[in-house]
Amino acid sequence: MAGRWGRMVPERRRCASLVVEDEELLARLVAEVLGREGYAAEVVGDGRGALARALVEPLDLLVVDWMLPGLDGVQVIKRLRAAEVGAPVLMLTARDQIEDRVEVLDAGADDYLPKSFAFPDLLARVRALSRRPLEKVARSSQKGSFPYRGPFPDPSEDVAVPFK
Ligand code: CA
């Protein structure tokens, strides 16, 4: 199997991710899949634990379920954003109405994935999220520059898009 931990990451530091999900089996599967994509994935099963973990050390990615014991996923994301944690967040949710998606994105999630999802879909979204802020996230993960102060590149930095 090509997916053993640590196998596909050329950089000396693996990306750090946190999977926040109280369904143990799903959490383990997501963590394993992230591992194949080059993320060292920790699993936390509740909202307060997630918050405690994410506020202590910089993360490169969070995958957060909405329905969690204690603090729900949307509350977790709001509190992280309020604390200027800018790491990309992918929300998993069984709720998939338009207003649910709006709530998730307005709370500060970068993307969402309705349950039940296919792992290739999860990975494609993770790749998309990691491409977007890659440089800044990498910098934010270095000592002394945490918290990272914005998930998106400043549009004024590369405005030269010719419309012809
Ligand atoms: Ca759940």
UniProtKB/TrEMBL annotation:
Key word Metal-binding present: no
Q: Where is this region: Disordered?
A: 133-164
InterPro entries in the record: CheY-like_superfamily, Sig_transdc_resp-reg_receiver, WalR-like
Q: Which Pfam families match?
A: Response_reg
SUPFAM superfamilies (UniProt xref): CheY-like
Q: Which UniProt keywords apply?
A: DNA-binding, Phosphoprotein, Transcription, Transcription regulation, Two-component regulatory system
List, in alphabetical order, the Gene Ontology terms for molecular function in this entry.
phosphorelay response regulator activity; transcription cis-regulatory region binding
Q: Which GO terms describe its cellular component?
A: cytosol; protein-DNA complex
Q: Which residues form the Response regulatory domain?
A: 16-130
Residues bearing 4-aspartylphosphate? 65
Coiled coil regions, renumbered to chain: none
Q: Which GO terms describe its biological process?
A: regulation of DNA-templated transcription
Name of the protein: Response regulatory domain-containing protein
| Species of origin | uncultured Rubrobacteraceae bacterium
